[in-house]
Design a protein that fits this description.
Strand order of the largest sheet of chain A: 2-10-9-4-5-6
Radius of gyration of chain A: 13 Å
Number of helices of chain B: 0
Largest interface: A-B, 22 and 25 residues
Low-confidence stretches of chain A: none
Low-confidence stretches of chain B: none
Order of helices and strands of chain B: EEEEEEEEEEE
Order of helices and strands of chain A: EEEEEEEEEE
Strand content of chain B: over 45%
Oligomer: heterodimer
Number of strands of chain B: 11
Strand content of chain A: over 45%
Distance between the termini of chain A: 40 Å
Number of strands of chain A: 10
C-alpha cells in the first residue's frame, strides 16, 4: 500500500522560510516522479512543483519559481520542499503526491501539512 | 498553459440518480486526463486516469469518458458517500500540470 506522509508545516511570518518533508513507502520511490500540490483555504488544487526520479528534471509553477526548491533523497525515500521568501498567498495545505500509475499524472496523495504565512 | 474548466460548479442529485460532471480543456489533451475526488477535510483521491481507466478500488458506478477537449465523469447511481468535490487534471502538456476549478456534488 502506497503511503505518503508530510511534515514541517506551521506558522511563519511573511518573508520567512520553511522546509517541508515527505516520507514515502509502499512503492519503489527511486523509480518515480514526485510532486507538491497545494490548496489554499476554501480553494481548489494548485500544482507547485515536480521532480523526476533521479532529480534530472525539476519544474515549478510560476507563482513559486525562484522562491521554492524541490529535492529528494532516494536513499531515505524522502521528498522535500524548501520554501523561502514566503508570502501570505502561500498559505495553504501542501500535499506530497506521487506519479506511480500514469506519470506524469498525479495519483497517490499524502494527508497534507498546513502552512500559514501571517504576521 | 492549458486551462481546465469544470461545470457545473455545484450539482445536486437525488440518491440513486445519475450525476454527470463536465470538464473542458482549452486545447486538446488527448486522453491524458485524470479525475480526483476530495471529501471534506481529506486529501484528494484518484478516481480515473487516461480519461476512462478506473483506479484500483474505485467502484464501478464511477466512469470517465471523452478525449481531446471534452470529458465527462459519470456517477451512475449517487450514494451518500459520494458527496465531495471532484477535480479534473490534464497531464498532456506540462509544466504546468493544471486542475479544473472543481464541481461540488451534493445530495438533493
Amino acid at each position: 500500500e502506497v503511503q505518503l506522509g508530510e511534515s514541517g508545516g506551521g506558522l511563519v511570518k511573511p518573508g520567512g522560510s520553511l522546509r517541508l518533508s515527505c516520507t514515502a513507502s509502499g512503492f519503489t520511490f527511486s523509480n518515480h516522479n514526485m510532486n507538491w500540490v497545494r490548496q489554499a483555504p476554501g480553494k481548489g488544487l494548485e500544482w507547485v512543483s515536480s521532480i523526476s526520479s533521479s532529480s534530472t528534471y525539476i519544474f515549478y509553477a510560476d507563482s513559486v519559481k525562484g522562491r521554492f526548491t524541490i529535492s529528494r533523497d532516494n536513499a531515505k525515500n524522502s521528498l522535500y520542499l524548501q520554501m523561502n521568501s514566503l508570502r501570505a498567498e502561500d498559505t495553504a495545505v501542501y500535499y506530497c503526491a506521487s506519479s506511480v500509475i500514469a506519470a506524469p499524472s498525479i495519483d497517490y496523495w499524502g494527508q497534507g501539512t498546513l502552512v500559514t504565512v501571517s504576521s | 498553459e492549458i486551462v481546465m474548466t469544470q461545470s457545473p460548479a455545484t450539482l445536486s442529485v437525488s440518491p440513486g440518480e445519475r450525476a454527470t460532471l463536465s470538464c473542458r480543456a482549452s486545447q486538446t489533451v488527448n486522453s491524458n486526463l485524470a479525475w480526483f475526488q476530495q471529501k471534506p477535510g481529506l486529501a484528494p483521491r484518484l478516481l480515473i486516469y487516461g480519461a476512462s481507466t478506473r483506479a484500483t478500488g474505485i467502484p464501478a458506478r464511477f466512469s470517465g469518458s471523452g478525449s481531446g477537449t471534452e470529458f465527462t465523469l459519470t456517477i451512475s447511481s449517487l450514494q451518500s458517500e459520494d458527496v465531495a468535490v471532484y477535480y479534473c487534471q490534464q497531464y498532456n502538456y506540462w509544466p504546468p500540470l493544471t486542475f479544473g476549478g472543481g464541481t461540488k456534488v451534493e445530495i438533493k
